Amino acid sequence: MTTSSSSCRDAGRKNPETSSDGAGEPPEAEEAQEPCATEGPAETPATCSTDNLHLQEVRQDIEQRTQELLSRGGAYLASRSLQDFNAEATAQIKAGEHAAAAATYGALFAKARQSNLTHPELYICHSNCSAAYLHLGLFSEALQHANKCQQLAQASLRRNFKGSGSYVKSFLRKGQALLGLGLSRDAVKALDEGLKLDPFNPDLKLELQKANQAVLKDLAEGKGRETKAIDYPEARQRISYHPYAAPLHRIKTDDMLPLKLLTPFQAENDHHIKDTYNYVTVQTDVRMPKRHILQLEDSYTVSRFQQAIEAAVKAVVAEDKDCRVLDLGAGAGLHAMLALRAGAHHVTAVERWLYLALACKQCMLANEFSEERLKVVYKRATDLKLKEDVPIVCNLLIANILDEGLLTSGLIPSVRHALGSLLTTDAILLPSSATVYCQAVELRTREVAGLDMSAANQYRWHPAYAAGVPLAHDRIVALSEPKEVWHFDLGAPPDRSDVKTVDVEITRRGRWNAVMFWYKLHLFGDVYLSTGPEAVAEGLRSLQPAVQYIAGELPVDVGQVLPMAASHNTVRMQFDVESADYLHLHKRDASFPQHHFAMLVDEGRCQAYERAIKRAVERARAADGEAHVLDIGCGAGVLSLLAARAGAKSVVACDLHESLCDVARKAAAANGLSERVSVVYRDIGLLQRGREVRPLGVNVVVADVFDAGLLGDQIPYMLELARRSVVAPGATVVPAAATLYCMGIEALTGRVAGLDMSPMNTYRWDAGYEAVNLADIPHRRLTKPTKVLEQWFDGGERKGRGRESMLKLEVVAEGLLNAVAFWFDLHLDDCETLTNAPDGIGEGGVVLCALGDGEEEAGRENGAAAEAVQVDDSPALPLESQQQQLAAQDDAAASDSPRQPPTPGAASDTEPAANDFVPADSFEGARQGYAFKLGDQGLGYYLECPASSAGAGKAADRSQEKEDGEPAASAVSDGGGAQQRGSSVLAAVPAAAEQAQPQPLAPGPRHHWGQALQYLDRAVAVQPGRRLALLARRDEGRMRFSLRQGVGEAVGRSPWKVEWGGGSSVENPHYQRVHYCQLLVSDFLQRVKSRRFPPIERDMAMVLAHCGSLLLDPAAVQEVAHELIVLEKMHLYPEFSPAASLEALTKRPLRLC
What we know:
This protein is α+β, with helices and mostly antiparallel strands. It has 29 helices and 43 strands. Helix 8 packs antiparallel against helix 9. The longest helix has 26 residues. It starts with a strand and ends in an 8-residue tail after the last helix.
């Protein structure tokens, strides 16, 4: 329930000019009214009393005038038609006699009631009457007639569209009346609804801008805040389960904290939800192996569990007992094998997810553990049975059913079931307890490039807590000290809910909009594992604090103490603030693309775009006299606002997500740019000249519709659609072009804690690429960066735009190349370039610094350290010519390596080395001791530190030695030698070095796109100084990389990605299982258009609320839920959207900002 406080009613002063219509005139003849002002100094009680007295006199005057007209008798009223009354009132309004006009309209409405008359355009009379009352400052009456106009005009639209103009104008009248009454929030809503219908209406845009300013003024004065009534369950109620025959479609999960829980049996068999549950289960199953690889790479968590397991096994053995272990949430079996290695007699490894259970068996066999000592059970932990699944009661329990929210994966139900029948009374539990801490935080978007973008904060909402996305800790502002909330003793797990009030003492001024909570596990003895911020700083990667948004934004100051309600139902925790006055409540839109918050905090991107847009607008104004801009995929609208601020006469911001359009519209109003920025909720392919865009079209186009791989969001296709319809010939496009680069890397899992976990590499391969922050992925760089292609966005024809090209990668380190990382330089114009290159690589593919801590020293020893490497920039040949050339050069000497570009003239060898900066308009070649980048002094070459220069010099010397005498043959040949080398390296992967020491999580990519990572279908062993052929192909707008046929060794694939038999009837049951999900989606989309079924969000909310009792993974469930909700929204669009892309709207952010 939401309420709003209001200021003094009927406080208007201003009487702007207006005109009105005749009853027979078309609605389009109406002119919109200016708002009645609420501006000016604050009113004293005496002034307010005087104003109310004046308004009362005006009301009495209108009533007397109306009675005089009605008292002239029935003959007078019968002689005058409704049109006559309307014509008289219109003339009075034009003459400035608003009170007389209001009285005339009063007589008109009285005649219509008494004589039971009507008119198909009576809504015009109500609109004009509302305008008259607005001029008189009688906002209550104006609101009444605006609502009546809106009702009649909407009904008339069923007959024809003559009333469309009055219908739109009714929102303007309504907004003006609400603004006059001091209900600025309601006025914003009404005006926003009107702008959705007519995004180019200047009066609506101006009124929205004033209404937003009024909201801010109210908030500054402590008025207009919103409250939310929160209903909490009584403390410590017993948790139960729904009976098997319960109708699940009637279960409400509005509070997301139910006291009656679902069982997996019900979810699998109830016909209302079973399809949704099965879809979520299969989709989670195929996502879990890659998520588990992250756990294996988390040496911080692995080392602590290893210490605890070894100590616990020794404690059991010390009592002269056989250590029998029950491992819940076994994953790939690491903990189970650690227990066996420590001396356990037998381990039962239980895994709820099918492909993790298969991986567990594979890892067990790879480490030569027999099935007599290690039994793998694919089952939910709450379904285990003694003897059937667990051979004998166990005396050591390892429960690794953990997630950011502690309870949401089913930890407590699983441990409770194990304690009931599967463990001895003196069994050791690992972990034995958990302590939960919470903290008030601020996670908001503020100014972006000098623009107020706080409107986006209204959509910071999530049905549960944000899971599965690393936090951008530099964006989180702590407003209080951490406080302990609960202590869970897993030896006596709770079976009742709990609600407690926590007093939060504010230690920093800000706006409280989220709660960050984490927990500290007591594993065994003196071994603890925390998921708090301090653990993340020490190297924790697979877990982190959870962030839950509260109902809205609360202004807080130092010393305040606010009560916070903390509650749990054994499978989920929840935090809310009781009885608070929020600045605004968050809008509940589960389809909102969360990655747009990361785009907004990318300050470097926004500033670079601002400079480029400013130059583009200036050029357009110089050439055509004025600039008209189209923003494709505007998102929150920051690029549109930058264009308007740069001097564009008009900006059309187009997006296909309604909530993003709402943010853009409010941001334009907040920055005073509504008059020039029009936000259109429509597909770019459906825009038309003369409707959304001026008849001559736009002469500037801006866009940031890129994914990590540059072209995955179909930006070339969108630009082509725009050029066909609304873009003028010769228009400037920002960005103008882009250059794609790639390099070969080794990204493999080897030995973890001394155990061979290489079978997990089978689950890395995918046909497409994924967006990553490469600094988060343990890898080794094996080749120099190489240019892949150039993409031009200005519509001109350029060379090098073929769909396929053969690249030549120069190897700099020994290893097994199984993946390709690629990124792009985005050339906004001739002067500005953005790059999303990995750390240590600059624009143009130049290696700027030594390899990171996550890469092994082998790369340093093979010349990949501080050398400023120039990208292979030789022109691409046709594919057939390249293949012939490469085949002839397989055994060529090193002198055939790619030509090094000439050194720049400004960077000659005779120039003094003390020059720490050499300006350059573009990259002109590698220069010893210098790095090319955009720095404080502009674009050019900056002097590196002496150590880096020395390293570069040594690397150059080694390179010269190779050119003088050492052959640089191709890394592989078409013969069997390559296969032997590849297989030997694959076999040697388990023997690789132990995992490195824990490293803190990288702060995040330099730009929000991150980098693209594609695992190859074949892996090849490479040696430094040689070259490798790589085929780059554009397939449906997305890049694909592959080795030449016959090169390297085929990598393993996930079971569901292997088709046996081909065609529609494949024999592989794993492939059929995933294909079943596609059939479910097809069936779901067929039902969407009918609107006869409840939205998918309702089913997903139920699954998410019962995630812990269903033993699902919350991060995977949230990801699947977002995809389905967005898919449903896309298919409910009233028009076909040719440029719509599910991938573009469901991208996951690389950091939660």
